[in-house]
Amino acid sequence: MVRIKERYLLVKILYPNDLGSRPDLPDVVVVNQPTAEQLTASHLLRGIRAEIATLFGDYGAGAVEGGGLTVKYFSQATSTFILRVSRSSYRFVWAALTFMNCVPIKNGKPCTFRVVHVSGTMRKAEEEAIRRARDLIFAVENDKQHFRDRETVGT
């Protein structure tokens, strides 16, 4: 019996176009802001499949459909999601995510989809997501402290 081999892609949604729009917040918070509540896992899948069909045509769409593209985890608060896709077609999904430039909902915000980790197991993808969320919290705290120090020096 042959085991079906899959890849898990940990993807982060970033909002670099909003830099400088909120001078009261550190840049780390602005770029890593929460995603709109209207975005769901089904919207994500629909947008990714449409982008694959645009980039690779019927061949890419068929390869991904046969590979069982699914969203295993989605967090609007951290703008992070984990995709499961077959090992043979994960590069199609990665390329499509790279070319997506807005949230796949009506009047979606401009954004960047960044694949931050590729794993062979769900467990390792989850551990990396937790590690990155922890690092982001520390970065925000450090940036906030630096922001406060800069304000006290400037006054």
Describe this structure in words.
With 155 residues, this protein is an alpha+beta fold. Helices cover 48% and strands 19% of the residues. The protein has 4 helices and 4 strands, in the order βααββαβα. The chain has helices spanning 27-31, 41-66, 90-99, 122-154; strands spanning 6-14, 70-75, 80-86, 112-119. The chain has a 4-stranded antiparallel beta sheet with strand order 2-3-1-4, sandwiched between helices. A hairpin with a 4-residue loop joins strand 2 (70-75) and strand 3 (80-86). The model has no long low-confidence stretch (mean pLDDT 87).
Radius of gyration, in angstroms, nearest whole number: 18 Å
The averaged pLDDT comes out at 87
- Kindly state the number of beta strands: 4
Uncertain segments: none
Structural class category: alpha+beta
DSSP strand (E) fraction? 15-25%
- State the end-to-end CA separation: 71 Å
> Outline, from the CA principal axes?
globular
Number of helices: 4
For the biggest β-sheet, the strand order reads 2-3-1-4
One letter per element, helices H and strands E, the order comes to EHHEEHEH
The largest β sheet comes out as:
4 strands, antiparallel
Binned, the helix content reads 40-55%
